[in-house]
Task: structure prediction
Amino acid sequence: MAGFKAVMVSRDENKKQSVEIVELDRSDLMPGNVLVKIDHSTINYKDGLAITGKSPVIRRWPMIPGIDFTGTVIESSHAGFQSGDDVILNGWGVGEKHYGAFAGEARVNGDWLIKRPKGLSSAQCMAIGTAGYTAMLCVIALENAGVTPGRGPVLVTGANGGVGTIAISLLSSLGYHVVASTGRLEEKGFLTDLGASEVLDRNHLSEPGRPLGNEVWSAAIDSVGSHTLANVLSQIQYGGAVAACGLAQGYDLPSTVMPFILRGISLLGIDSVMKHRHFREAAWARLEADLDLKKLEALSTTIGFGDIVETAEALMAGKIRGRVIVDINAA
Result:
């Protein structure tokens, strides 16, 4: 049986974490009813946390990190998939408590998979990844809350991150006036090329603010949390909405009920990890239809398997913009 490489994160009896490249075979994989040959993955914020150990993301030791992959089914006893199917996996605790994407093969529960849209390549799907899929869930949630392009500007926080970059591209393609909030103002040109009409210094939002500010934005997509989210909520127009999907600044929310009861706004919590297949398929169908693939290419870079650990460390140091595609079969 041919072996394959994997990134393995371990820790010793003193809980000191280490990362190494190991050689495995199929007998080492965890239980599941679908075996997949992985073609591409990506590096998300959560993957960076897992590899660097900066947050207790990993729930089982040792662990192969990586929460996203695309690949081709090798074997299946699941009714929905057969050998040769091209599939996508996002979330479901893979890379946290079930061996993940940074390996040549994965054995998983078929209920966690969806079939790859015909109009998107394997690499394009991982340029999108959980970050882009989450951004699409946010856009759909805002649409369902009645937010339309004609209602006014939409704010995107964490604009240089994975969710932020895809959200800007999607919203601008759908006709929204997008305001991008970032701590890297030197990237203004990059963000305007993606579709942002305005670029805002994140310092305007990241410090403690008033419980109720001026009505500025019709809606927002927030991946930052903490004081940033509190300030965003205080400045949403009457009847607007915020889709919250991240906590890069913190998991606290130092806000009040005032924006909710005086302006009737909505805070929409977006979970991508455990979302039912119906919603996943709908989001990926919208990505296939609405995402500008030229912009996707512009915000994406590709690395080989051997660059995963170094790139994850760079991501956590704030040195990565946009999306990273991992070609599992490239050195």
Notes: The chain is about 30% helix and 25% strand. Residues 122-144 form the longest helix (23 residues). The chain has a mean pLDDT of 95. The CA atoms of residues 139 and 308 lie 30 Å apart.
